[in-house]
Specification:
By secondary structure, the protein is of the alpha+beta class. The protein contains 10 helices and 13 strands. A hairpin with a 6-residue loop joins strand 1 and strand 2.
Amino acid sequence: GRVGAYCGSIYFSKTKCWVTDNAITGHTKTKNSSRFLFYLLKKLDLNKQRGGSSQPLINQSILYSLKVAVPTTEEEQVAIAKVLSDLDSKIELNQQMNKTLEVIGQNLFKRWFIDFEFPNNNGKPYKSSDGKMVDSELGNIPKEWSVEPIGSITDIAIGRTPPRKESQWFSTNPSDIKWISIRDLGHVGIYIGQSAEYLTLDAVERFNVPVIPKNSVVLSFKLTVGRVAITTEDMLSNEAIAHFKLVNNSYNLSPEFIYLFLKNYDFSQLGSTSSIATAVNSQSIKKIKVILPDKKTIDDFNNLVGSIFNQLKNTYFEINSLSNIRDSLLPRLMNGKIRVKI
C-alpha cells in the first residue's frame, strides 16, 4: 500500500493481478525468493518508514533506501519462507473452515427462527407441516412463542473511555486489561479475544468502566452499526459498544442464540438509512424485539448449535496460537538468530 489508510500494508499475490496507483508492486531479481521478500517487508514494519505531510505516503525512493541483511543463497531464502508460509497456509485453512461453520450456524438460525421450519414433534418442518401460528406484533409466530424487548431478557451495558488527553490511563501492555473498539471488531470473526489497546486497572476503577464477562455478546451501535462478536475472556470496551449478559435466564437462551439473532437483525429498522449511524443509541438497542421460542425448541437448538460453536472457538484459539508462533519466528528467522537447514 503506497498512500492513505493502507499505506505500508503488505500483500503477496499468488496469481497475476493489476494494482491501482495507490499501490507499489515489487518483484525479486534473479536468485532471490519473492515469498522471502514478502516476509522481509513484513518484518521491516513499513509503517515506521512512512513519510508525507497531509497523509501517510511510501514511495519507491523510500523502499530503495532501506538497508537489509539477507541470506546470500536463494535456497536458504526459500527454506525460511516455507516455514512461515506453511504456518500462514494452516491459519488460512482454519479461517476458511470457521467461515463455513459460521454459515452453517447462520442457516440453522434462519431456518428455525425466521422461516419457523424447526423440527416439530414428528421431526417435520414446523411451518410447512401446518404448525399452529398465532398473531404477534412482529407478525405470525409459532404457538407458545412470544415477543419481548431484548432489554428485558438481557442485561445491557455500555463501555466507557477515560479522558484521551490523560495518556496514563491507556496502554499497549498485554498485562493490562483488553479494551476493545469498533476497529477491533472489524478484524475478528465470531470470537474476540484481542484488542489494540488496553486500560490500566487504575483507569477501570477510577472511571468505573464496566467489565464485559467472558462469553458475552458485544455489539457496535455507533458510527459503524452492527458488528457483533462473543468475548473469550473478561474485557472492556469504549462507549460505541454495548454488551449483553443473560440474566434471570428463564428462557434458557445462550450467547450463541443472541449472537445469531443480532447478526441477522436489520438495524436499519432503528433509523433512516441516512441517519442510522447517529440514530441508534442504547435505548433503541434495549427496545429491539426478539421472538422467543418455547423451552424445548431453544434447548434443541442450543444442543445442535453448541457443538458448532465449540469447534469455532477451538479453531479460533488455534489460529491465535499459530499466529503468535509465526510472529515470534518472523524476526528471528529474518535476522539469522534461527537458521533453517537446507
